[in-house]
Design brief:
Blueprint (H helix, E strand, L loop, with lengths): L2 H9 L16 H10 L5 E2 L11 H12 L12 H14 L9 E5 H11 L7 E6 L5 H7 L3 E6 L10 H7 L4 E7 L11 H14 L2 E5 L25 E6 L11 E5 L2 H12 L7 H12 L3 H23 L13 E2 L9 H12 L1 E2 L1 E2 L11 E4 L4 H16 L5
Parallel strand pairs: 1-10, 3-4, 3-5, 5-6, 6-7
Antiparallel strand pairs: 2-8, 7-8, 9-12, 11-12
The protein binds pyridoxal-5'-phosphate.
Length: about 400
Amino acid sequence: MTESLDHDFYESEDPIWNPALLAIPVPGIRRMVNMAAEMDDVIHLSIGQPDMPAPDNIIEATVDALRAGQTGYTMDAGLPELLDALADYYGKRYKRSLSPENVIVTTGATEAIYLALTATSAPGREFIVPDPAFMLYAPLIRMNGGVVRAIPTRPENNHQLDPQEVIDAIRMDTYAIVLNSPSNPTGTVYPRETIEAIVEEAAYRGVYVISDEVYDHLLYDGKTYPSVLNCCSDLDHVMVISSFSKTYSMPGMRIGWLIASQGAIKKLRRYHMFTTTVANTPCQWAGVEALRGDHRFVDDMVQEYTRRRNRLIELIDETPHLTGYKPDGAFYVFPSLPEGVNGGNVALRLLRETGVCTIPGETFGNSSANALRISYSTSMDNIERAFERMIPWFSKQDFS
Ligand SMILES: Cc1ncc(COP(=O)(O)O)c(C=O)c1O
């Protein structure tokens, strides 16, 4: 797609289009990637998917399922074997009793987010969302008439969320709080106390916590993951979303899920039937293998990401005008440029003049226009080569 197509879509006065589509912003990511596609010798620090191939046992399980004729629809909630495996896996991981009726399998976490937000958002309802945040949440809320109450997080605080700020933002019209830890774009992991304080107050006030946990295995320095599922006494006010995309390097296989109370799952199942019907059948079998098979792949991947993160932090420290911090999870760093500098312009010039593609902070909300998202889901060699271009370029800039 080209820039002009974007323009046509957003400027068109053709009455066929639902005005709700205007809630979808021109995606900064696509603008950058489109421009990069027309250039030679681009180094991408823009990637939002794992760069390692999916493990062999998962590929084989998919092929076996196809050969065994597993090409039909599954049950609407998901393949029973995968629902069992997920309930079992989460039950053991967080030492709580979960049944397959607490789970729905979706087409990636994206569909789970879509179901959770569009099934609850309505005119007059408020949703608390950290800013910056993954770019899907706010538009999905707004498309359905809901209002986003953004809670800015700050780089000097490693983009940690202040639970008291979240609690103070809850009002009569608040329906849900959206959390994403580890975060895209900041890599920030919320400590257990933050999650507990928010979940407890939300349950008390009858507000849902919708927790996107797709990076729940990408945690560094031996930290254990504080999941919302581990911090709530019952499931009455939580929806926990995750997928195989990041953990098993299988984003194109499109298997995600949502865990909630049985009542919530029943409602979402009906909605799911009217959106995607069911998730991809052979890839649901791959998911069963991912959960029940060997987990060494994940450990190796975490080790490699740790190595890259550590080096990237050193390189950001060596780069004039960029201020970084040490993220604890995911595969992103979100360094800041000096106050008032437009990250969108810097990212465009950086791409044009050095061939290094990053993502401007404005893609993820209004509070971080002076930031750049840098992904380390690329080889160490690419990271080194990118900074060999970036450091001299930034040295020549005068942002005052
Ligand atoms: C925070 C977050 N949630 C959800 C997704 C989408 O995941 P999936 O591939 O499972 O749809 C992404 C992908 O980048 C993400 O970063």
